[in-house]
Amino acid sequence: MSGKTADQWFEEYGESHQNKLNKMIHWVCVPLIFLDIMALLWSIPAPAAFAEIHPYLNWATLSSLFILGFYIRLSFTLTVGMVVLTLLSYTLIVGFESMGIAPLWLTAAIAFVVLWTLQFIGHHVEGKKPSFLADLQYLMIGPAWCLGFVYRKVGIRY
Questions:
Q1: Buried b vs exposed e over 96-112: b needs ≥16 C-beta within 10 Å?
Q2: What single string gives the DSSP state of each residue in the chain?
Q3: In terms of Cα–Cα distance, which of 61, 64, 55, 68 is closest to 42?
Q4: Which has the closest alpha carbon to 148: 25, 3, 26, 20?
Q5: Which of 2, 9, 67, 140 has its CA 20 to 30 Å from the CA of residue 30?
Q6: Does the pLDDT value for residue 138 go beyond 70?
Q7: Backbone torsions φ then ψ of 124, nearest 5 degrees
Q8: Average pLDDT score over the chain
Q9: This prediction's pTM
């Protein structure tokens, strides 16, 4: 990760998110893609030894440690918000699984395609390429960008 501040990341990310429709699509899709990726990771079979340590120790929870490591270097306050988003995601995933409607992996795979299709439609309308095509770190900036906007609206410094 470069030495950019959160505001620098958000400003650069925001350059390709000026169109009102694209912003709206991102406001819906970015948090759902975060949830969706956690669901896909949750679906990957974990070694039995993981369950012996804790029933929710799996690839999603392990990857979250690395993901949150990215955010802690960016901002402690944003990290707190991302922990809340992560825990909310896990709660929704466990709830969905307990309902037994459909396999989690299948639902998440379908959602992944739909959500990313919407994201690319938004960028087509915007007339600019998605930021992550220039730097993969922008995949991590998207959720924090949404969170940063909420923080600014309610007066939380990050």
A1: beeeeeeebeebbeebb
A2: --S--HHHHHHHHHTT--SHHHHHHHHHHHHHHHHHHHHHHHHSPPPHHHHHH-TT-SHHHHHHHHHHHHHHHH-HHHHHHHHHHHHHHHHHHHHHHHHTSS-HHHHHHHHHHHHHHHHHHHHHHHTS--GGGT-TTHHHHHHHHHHHHHHHHHT---
A3: 61
A4: 26
A5: 2
A6: yes
A7: -65, -45
A8: 94
A9: 0.90
pLDDT over threshold 90, residue 1: no
Q: Could you tell me the residue ranges of all domains in the chain?
A: 27-154
Q: Among residues of the chain, what percentage have pLDDT more than 70?
A: 99
SS (H, E, C) 37-65: HHHHHHHCCCCHHHHHHCCCCCHHHHHHH
Measured in whole angstroms, the distance separating CA 68 from the mean position of its chain's CA atoms is 11
Quick one: CA dihedral 126, 132, 138, 143, positive or negative? positive
Report the C-alpha gap between 83 and 104 in whole angstroms.
22
Over residues 111-133, the pLDDT tens digits come to: 999 999 999 999 999 999 988 88
8 A C-beta contact, residue 27 and residue 122:
no
Phi-psi region of 5 (alpha: psi -120 to 50; beta: other; left: phi over 0): beta
**Mean pLDDT calculated for residue range 76-80:** 96
